[in-house]
Amino acid sequence: MFGDISVRRLGLGAMRVSGARDAEGVRDRAEAIRLCQQVAERGVNLIDTANIYGYGESEEILAEALHPYDGLLIATKAGFKPGKIAPGATSLPPLGEPKHIREECDKSLRRLRLDVIDVYQVHVPDPEVPYEDTVGAFVELQRLGKVRHIGVCNVSVEQLALARSLCTVVSVQNRYNIGDRASRAVLDVCERDGIAFMPWGPLLVGDDADGLLAQISNSYGATTQQVALAWLLRRSPVMAPIPGTTNVDHATENIDSAWLDLAANDVAALDEVA
Questions:
Q1: Is 240 inside any structural domain?
Q2: Is the pLDDT of residue 152 over 90?
Q3: 3 state SS of 222
Q4: Residue 6 lies in a domain
Q5: Containing structural domain, residue 190
Q6: How confident is the model at residue 3 (pLDDT cuts 50, 70, 90)?
Q7: What is the average pLDDT across 110-114?
């Protein structure tokens, strides 16, 4: 549940949608649209994107493929400075100034062809801007009727608590997977209080788990990625993994993981990896 919105727990992360390629390996917008439509046809009704994914192109493709989003929850984000990543950098710089958040909300509304964003997420805390000011911009957008629900990303337990003191937070999106459980304490808060938790990077499993994943996946006739996603779904009832892909067949494999019933001993073995 995202507030009053019910979705299936396995979603699509749309960061890579704009990079979809055809059979010859050429970037292909028609293939990106087919990917989105195929995922929705398979019953996925949670799709997560952001203003910076493809420099706005991800939102545009989702609108072209899926608008008016019947039965779908499209969640998007703001909080990074749009543009190209600088040489040597691993990420865009954060930009949590309220004016920027307001401007980016209007751009996302236009690209997604929406009057209201169902879940608008604070993409990252900006160390140069008080977090309460950034979150406050989202609260103001909600008051104006442009945002239905608010989510936060890449937060500590303390930052989550601060955000919740200002508004109802319906979702948290932090990195979490078999090999990286640094956000375990944040997940515990979400589980305790019924807040949806969207783990980003769900398929980054780490070297320590590779051999065990291969062994388990072979026993089920599944891929290691499917086992990694099935483990996340078993890990917590509030977990809503959002694996991304540029490939329709890969998306189908990811969706099939929702039906992979891991034995208790396999879950326990993966629990012990980290």
A1: yes
A2: yes
A3: coil
A4: no
A5: 12-271
A6: very high
A7: 98
176 is catalytic: no
Return the number of other C-beta atoms located less than 10 Å from residue 106's C-beta.
11
User: pLDDT, tens digit, for every residue of 235-266?
Assistant: 999 999 999 999 999 999 999 999 999 999 99
State the average pLDDT over residues 117-138.
98
Task: Using DSSP, state whether 77 is helix, strand or coil.
Answer: strand
Quick one: pLDDT at residue 208?
66
Residue 210's domain is classified under what CATH number? 3.20.20.100
Active-site residue, from 53, 69, 131, 176: 53
Give the model's pLDDT for residue 206.
Answer: 67
7 belongs to a structural domain? no
Distance of CA 213 to the CA centre of its chain: 23
Residue 186 has pLDDT above 90, yes or no: yes
Residue 160 carries which side chain, given as an amino acid letter?
L
Place of tokens 């939102």: 59
Handedness of CA 82, 83, 86, 91 (dihedral sign): positive
Tell me, letter by letter, the H, E, C secondary structure of 16-51.
HHHHCECCCCCECHHHHHHHHHHHHHCCCCEEECCC
Q: Exposed, middle or buried: residue 269 (CB in 10 Å: 0-12, 13-18, 19+)?
A: middle
pLDDT band at 79 (very low <50, low <70, confident <90, very high): very high
Tokens coding 238: 């509030």
5 within some domain: no
Cβ count near 64 (within 10 Å): 16
Which structure tokens are listed for 35? Answer: 């990917």
Query: Burial, 145: exposed, middle or buried (Cβ in 10 Å; 0-12, 13-18, 19+)?
Result: exposed
Residue 274 binned pLDDT confidence (cut-offs 50, 70, 90): low
Phi, psi of 271 (to 5 degrees): -60, -30
How many domains, the chain?
1
